[in-house]
């Protein structure tokens, strides 16, 4: 009897324009997070911990750093003789070169790859969310409900529901209505952009969707509403846990700050569900006797001589004597010089905050993105 197979397709080509200069030279999934990770480490680690052995990663926007980080997938145990990890970039054919036009189009363009793997189920993932999730449990739910599509949802505050794709369900959890960013939402169950489809069913809809000249070739806008309209059995899988779409500078800063909270539910220290990443093999951190450090994450190669209060420091950051950094995220190889003051900021990689420079304000609630050339207030 043929063993049931699930293939994960991870959409990792996003530009992330709302992250401003953070994504000027890299794709959003490659953006650093939490002192030592990149955003894509979370869905990759979820897949590895869930026992998924086949995964395709769809890249597009400035993929060099992302591809270099992923390599052959060895850090997540995806370097296998059979199955494993494949990087899937846009390609040319007899019609010429083309970019992926939408989330559904990206999957459609890789139908030949999926057919080669020959899965029973396709798991669609986004490469730009921070969360820990056991996809096995979602797949079990999908099979128990005898569904043709399962959409992972999370309860959001009612006042924020209009920002998301919203699912209305019946008492059995079956989706009866879907609305993309509704003005007056009927539910607060927001789509997480994580889907499981029976592959033969999804394949049929992808082929029909590409024939429609009016389609935007998107799962949320086209595939899901069409399947719902056709009466396909679609169910909502409610996720309870930490999940963050780091789509803006402020949400990115908040997600990093969440790691310092007493009630941090992401818990990257949980050894039963580890977050794997590519390690840099750097020397240990050094905290001098002139330093004052409170509630901060300090990573390899950092030298701290100044004051830190609720900060996340990536590798090889230098905080010099009499510098004060508060509520801030400082990316790798940045330097905070003597007497500088940094409040509520994200300091980009390699940036030097000059001696005596003051960035931000301790109490105004705004977040500042500091690059070599500009300081953006959000």
UniProtKB/TrEMBL annotation:
<keyword id="KW-0320">Glycogen biosynthesis</keyword>
<feature type="domain" description="Nucleotidyl transferase">
    <location>
        <begin position="8"/>
        <end position="261"/>
    </location>
</feature>
<dbReference type="GO" id="GO:0005978">
    <property type="term" value="P:glycogen biosynthetic process"/>
</dbReference>
<keyword id="KW-0321">Glycogen metabolism</keyword>
<keyword id="KW-0808">Transferase</keyword>
<dbReference type="InterPro" id="IPR029044">
    <property type="entry name" value="Nucleotide-diphossugar_trans"/>
</dbReference>
<feature type="binding site">
    <location>
        <position position="165"/>
    </location>
    <ligand>
        <name>alpha-D-glucose 1-phosphate</name>
    </ligand>
</feature>
<comment type="subunit">
    <text>Homotetramer.</text>
</comment>
<keyword id="KW-0119">Carbohydrate metabolism</keyword>
<comment type="pathway">
    <text>Glycan biosynthesis; glycogen biosynthesis.</text>
</comment>
<dbReference type="InterPro" id="IPR011831">
    <property type="entry name" value="ADP-Glc_PPase"/>
</dbReference>
<keyword id="KW-0548">Nucleotidyltransferase</keyword>
<dbReference type="Pfam" id="PF00483">
    <property type="entry name" value="NTP_transferase"/>
</dbReference>
<dbReference type="InterPro" id="IPR011004">
    <property type="entry name" value="Trimer_LpxA-like_sf"/>
</dbReference>
<keyword id="KW-0547">Nucleotide-binding</keyword>
<feature type="binding site">
    <location>
        <begin position="180"/>
        <end position="181"/>
    </location>
    <ligand>
        <name>alpha-D-glucose 1-phosphate</name>
    </ligand>
</feature>
<comment type="similarity">
    <text>Belongs to the bacterial/plant glucose-1-phosphate adenylyltransferase family.</text>
</comment>
<dbReference type="GO" id="GO:0005524">
    <property type="term" value="F:ATP binding"/>
</dbReference>
<protein>
    <recommendedName>
        <fullName>Glucose-1-phosphate adenylyltransferase</fullName>
        <ecNumber>2.7.7.27</ecNumber>
    </recommendedName>
</protein>
<feature type="binding site">
    <location>
        <position position="100"/>
    </location>
    <ligand>
        <name>alpha-D-glucose 1-phosphate</name>
    </ligand>
</feature>
<feature type="domain" description="Glucose-1-phosphate adenylyltransferase/Bifunctional protein GlmU-like C-terminal hexapeptide">
    <location>
        <begin position="290"/>
        <end position="375"/>
    </location>
</feature>
<comment type="function">
    <text>Involved in the biosynthesis of ADP-glucose, a building block required for the elongation reactions to produce glycogen. Catalyzes the reaction between ATP and alpha-D-glucose 1-phosphate (G1P) to produce pyrophosphate and ADP-Glc.</text>
</comment>
<dbReference type="GO" id="GO:0008878">
    <property type="term" value="F:glucose-1-phosphate adenylyltransferase activity"/>
</dbReference>
<feature type="binding site">
    <location>
        <position position="191"/>
    </location>
    <ligand>
        <name>alpha-D-glucose 1-phosphate</name>
    </ligand>
</feature>
<dbReference type="Pfam" id="PF24894">
    <property type="entry name" value="Hexapep_GlmU"/>
</dbReference>
<feature type="site" description="Could play a key role in the communication between the regulatory and the substrate sites">
    <location>
        <position position="60"/>
    </location>
</feature>
<dbReference type="InterPro" id="IPR005836">
    <property type="entry name" value="ADP_Glu_pyroP_CS"/>
</dbReference>
<dbReference type="InterPro" id="IPR056818">
    <property type="entry name" value="GlmU/GlgC-like_hexapep"/>
</dbReference>
<keyword id="KW-0067">ATP-binding</keyword>
<dbReference type="InterPro" id="IPR005835">
    <property type="entry name" value="NTP_transferase_dom"/>
</dbReference>
<dbReference type="InterPro" id="IPR023049">
    <property type="entry name" value="GlgC_bac"/>
</dbReference>
<dbReference type="InterPro" id="IPR011832">
    <property type="entry name" value="GlgDAde_trans"/>
</dbReference>
<feature type="site" description="Could play a key role in the communication between the regulatory and the substrate sites">
    <location>
        <position position="99"/>
    </location>
</feature>
């Amino acid at each position: 009897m043929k063993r049931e197979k699930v293939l994960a397709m991870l959409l990792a080509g996003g530009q992330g324009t709302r992250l401003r200069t953070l994504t000027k030279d890299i794709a959003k999934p490659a953006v650093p997070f939490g002192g030592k990770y990149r955003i894509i480490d979370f869905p990759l680690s979820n897949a590895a911990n869930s026992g998924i052995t086949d995964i395709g990663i769809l890249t597009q926007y400035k993929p060099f750093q992302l591809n270099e980080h992923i390599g052959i997938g060895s850090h997540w145990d995806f370097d296998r003789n059979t199955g494993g990890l494949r990087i899937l970039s846009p390609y040319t054919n007899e019609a010429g070169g083309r970019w992926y036009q939408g989330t559904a189009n990206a999957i459609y363009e890789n139908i030949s790859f999926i057919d080669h793997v020959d899965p029973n189920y396709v798991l669609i993932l986004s490469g730009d969310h921070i969360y820990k999730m056991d996809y096995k449990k979602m797949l079990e739910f999908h099979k128990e409900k005898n569904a043709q599509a399962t959409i992972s949802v999370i309860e959001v505050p009612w006042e924020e529901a209009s920002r998301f794709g919203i699912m209305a369900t019946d008492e059995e959890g079956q989706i009866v209505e879907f609305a993309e960013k509704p003005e007056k939402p009927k539910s607060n169950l927001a789509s997480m952009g994580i889907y499981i489809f029976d592959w033969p069913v999804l394949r049929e809809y992808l082929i029909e969707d590409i024939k429609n000249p009016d389609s935007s070739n998107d799962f949320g806008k086209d595939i899901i509403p069409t399947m719902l309209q056709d009466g396909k059995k679609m169910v909502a899988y409610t996720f309870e846990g930490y999940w963050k779409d780091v789509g803006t500078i402020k949400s990115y800063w908040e997600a990093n700050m969440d790691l310092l909270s007493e009630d941090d539910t992401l818990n990257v220290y949980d050894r039963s569900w580890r977050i794997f990443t590519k390690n840099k093999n750097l020397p240990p951190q050094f905290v001098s006797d002139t330093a004052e450090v409170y509630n901060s994450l300090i990573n390899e190669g950092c030298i701290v001589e100044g004051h830190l209060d609720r900060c996340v420091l990536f590798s090889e950051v230098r905080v010099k004597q009499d510098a004060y950094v508060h509520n801030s995220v400082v990316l790798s190889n940045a330097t905070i010089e003597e007497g500088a003051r940094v409040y509520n900021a994200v300091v980009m990689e390699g940036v030097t905050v000059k001696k005596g420079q003051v960035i931000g304000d301790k109490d105004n609630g705004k977040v500042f993105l500091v690059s070599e050339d500009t300081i953006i207030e959000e």
